[in-house]
């Protein structure tokens, strides 16, 4: 009887969903919002631990396309940014790990001329609400709000948030990562991919790439 009761309780807990963004932000790992699909908890990384996922098979030959309208009214075309490393970051305002990661990505994009970031908000949110949110959580990179019913075809639908794709200067997928990442981790990945070569950022800070 005790085992059966515990099983019922576990099912009930798994079925609980946060009622608002503040409640969702308390989760250690973000999951897609209502309307954006549900993540499998067994696939989510532990709190504070990014799961590094290398593309399988011919994944490294993939050169994904991405054309989105950003919050400032301009258009972001991934193909136009060849020659630089690009982080395509899926995130949401209610995702606490996403919010912890944003300052790292923002600083990295500001410090390194060879690295860019584009943030793809994977949630149902109005532009005015997003703009108000970004006043409190400013970033240096462009943000686009995705249609969760029609996400970019060349990118896997996120199993959890944040989900980040590292695109090489030639447009290939170098790495994809589920869970929050740090600027240092990104620089290490780029250094490994380039044989440890370094560039000096505009502020004089040495970095790999």
From TrEMBL:
PROSITE patterns: PROKAR_LIPOPROTEIN, THIOREDOXIN_2. It is found in: Cell envelope. GO terms for molecular function: antioxidant activity; oxidoreductase activity. Keywords: Cytochrome c-type biogenesis, Disulfide bond, Redox-active center, Signal. It comes from the Bacteria. The keyword Signal applies. Residues 57-195 form the Thioredoxin domain. Residues 1-21 form the signal peptide. Pfam families: AhpC-TSA. GO terms for cellular component: cell envelope. Residues 27-58 are annotated as: Disordered. Its main location: other. GO terms for biological process: cytochrome complex assembly. The keyword Cytoplasm does not apply. CDD domains: TlpA_like_family. Transmembrane segments: none annotated. This is TlpA family protein disulfide reductase. It comes from Novilysobacter ciconiae.
């Amino acid at each position: 009887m005790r085992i059966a009761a515990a099983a019922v309780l576990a099912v009930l807990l798994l079925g609980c969903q946060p009622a608002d963004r503040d409640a969702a932000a308390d989760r250690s790992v973000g999951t897609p919002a209502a309307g954006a699909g549900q993540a499998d908890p067994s696939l989510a990384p532990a709190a504070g631990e990014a799961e590094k996922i290398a593309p399988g098979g011919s994944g490294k030959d993939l050169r994904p396309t991405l054309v989105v309208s950003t919050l400032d009214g301009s258009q972001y075309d991934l193909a136009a940014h060849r020659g630089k490393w690009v982080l395509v970051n899926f995130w949401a305002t209610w995702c606490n790990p996403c919010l912890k990661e944003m300052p790292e990505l923002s600083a990295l994009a500001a410090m390194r001329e060879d690295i860019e970031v584009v943030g793809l908000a994977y949630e149902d949110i109005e532009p005015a609400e997003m703009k108000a949110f970004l006043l409190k959580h400013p970033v240096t990179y462009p943000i686009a709000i995705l249609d969760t019913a029609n996400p970019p075809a060349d990118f896997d639908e996120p199993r959890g948030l944040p989900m980040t794709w590292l695109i090489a200067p030639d447009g290939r997928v170098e790495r994809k990562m589920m869970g929050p990442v740090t600027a240092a981790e990104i620089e290490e990945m780029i250094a490994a991919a380039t044989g440890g070569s370094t560039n000096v950022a505009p502020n004089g800070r040495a970095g790999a790439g």
